[in-house]
Amino acid sequence: MEFKFTEENLQKIETVLKKYPEKKAAVMPVLYIAQEQNGYISGEVMKEVARVCEMPEEEVLGVVTFYTMYHQKPIGKYHIQVCTNVSCMLRGAYEIYDKVKDQLRINNGEVTADRQFSLEEVECMGSCGTAPMIAVNEDYYENLDVSSTIKILESLK
Amino acid sequence: MSSFILDGKQIEFKQGQTIIQAAADHGIDIPHFCWHPSLSISGNCRVCLVEVERMPKLVIACSTLAAEGMVVHTNSEKTLAARNAVMEFILINHPLDCPICDEAGECKLQDYAYQHSVGESRFTEEKMHKDKRVELGPHVMFDGERCISCSRCIRFCDEIAGEPQLTFVQRGDRVTIVTYPGKELDNPYSLNVTDICPVGALTNRDFRFKARVWDMSSTKSVCSGCARGCNTDIWVRSNEILRLTPRHNEEVNSYWMCDEGRLNTFKHVNSESRVSGPQIKRDGKLNKSNWDEAYAAAFGELKSYTKDEIAFIGSAASTCEDNYILAKFAKTVIGAKHIDFPRHIKAGDQDNILIREDKTPNALGAELAGIRPAADGLTFHAIMKAVDEGRIKALYVVEEDLVGLNPAYKETLRKLELLIVHASNYNETTELANIIFPAATYAEKNGTWVNFQGRIQRIRPAVTTIEGDRSLDNLAMSRLDKFGTEFDRWGNVKKMDARPVWKIISGLANTQSGKFRYSTSEDVFNELVKSVPDFSGLDYDVIGEKGAALKKFVNTKTV
Question: What ipTM describes this predicted complex?
Answer without folding.
Answer: 0.87
